[in-house]
Amino acid sequence: MNISTKIRIVIIDDHSLFRSGLKSLFETESDIEVIGEADNGANGLALIRQTSPDIVLLDIGIPGISGLEVCRQITQQLATIKVIMLTMHQTPSHLRKAFSAGAQGFILKQGGIEELLLAIRAIYAGKKYICSDMAGTVMDKFAGNSESSQESEVSSDLTDREAEIVRLVCQGWDNQQIGDALYISPATVKTHRARIMHKLDIHSNTDLLKYALKTGIIELE
Q1: Which residues is 56 bridged to in the sheet?
Q2: Which of 97, 143, 164, 207 could be a cystine partner for 202, CB 3.0 to 4.6 Å?
Q3: Does the pLDDT of residue 220 top 70, yes or no?
Q4: Residues contacting 25, CB < 8 A, separation 6+
Q5: What pLDDT is stored for residue 216 in this prediction?
Q6: DSSP annotation string for 46-78
Q7: Rounded (to 5) percent helix, strand, coil in the chain
């Protein structure tokens, strides 16, 4: 964590009005400074490596490299940087995936700025934070609530890396682009794609797209 009088933040979100709104709100806080912003995962990762912020506010649903993959790369390569996931999706599966990717916080975009500020300060102090609207989900899981537990354990037949490759393929990325984004060779991407198609018994990109929509790997806006 950087030694600073202010909490240094990078915002990664594809909606410029949302980023601008957060920046304006943070300007009134004496202990928070926005040092950069990006509208997609690739630009966000480059910015993070350049600026080394304390905390990244990261939208799960950014285009290109997903927020989950960005979070995984931060966790693996830049472990001192903390991530707060921002999302519109109030589901146990999104919560589980965010923390599995290494996030320290999970905040719903429809929540209030007061809770976001609370999360930022808590995470800067070394804690984790789940927004109040999702806290009940965690309690249900530990209490053994069957409905919540079943929903939170819904999983794909694919690994996280395979699911990310499927998402990028469905967005029209080629093997070279995917390899560059995930720091693997195009040949490795090709191998992954062949393994995915075999594992799912799928024989066309159209069927792969249907699978991705059905399982929530990609979502229609």
Answers
A1: 10, 83
A2: 207
A3: no
A4: 113
A5: 78
A6: HHHHHH--SEEEEETT-SSS-HHHHHHHHHHH-
A7: 55, 15, 35
Contact of 34 with 11, CB cutoff 8 Å: yes
One of 3.40.50.2300, 1.20.120.550, 3.30.565.10, 3.40.190.10 is the CATH number of 7-150, namely 3.40.50.2300
Nearest to 37 by CA among 14, 60, 64: 14
Whose CA is closest to 11, among 68, 72, 62?
62
Strand, coil or helix: what is 91?
A: coil
- For the segment 117-152, what is each residue's pLDDT rounded down to a tens digit? 999 999 999 999 998 877 665 545 544 544 444 443
3-state class of 12 per DSSP? strand
Q: Where in the chain is the domain with CATH 3.40.50.2300?
A: 7-150
For residues 58 and 83, the answer to whether their CB atoms sit within 8 Å is yes
* Distance separating alpha carbons of residues 156 and 129, to the nearest angstrom: 26
Task: Name the burial class of residue 114, with classes exposed (0-12), middle (13-18) and buried (19+) by CB atoms within 10 angstroms of its CB.
Answer: exposed
**Class of the CATH domain delimited by 160-215:** mainly alpha
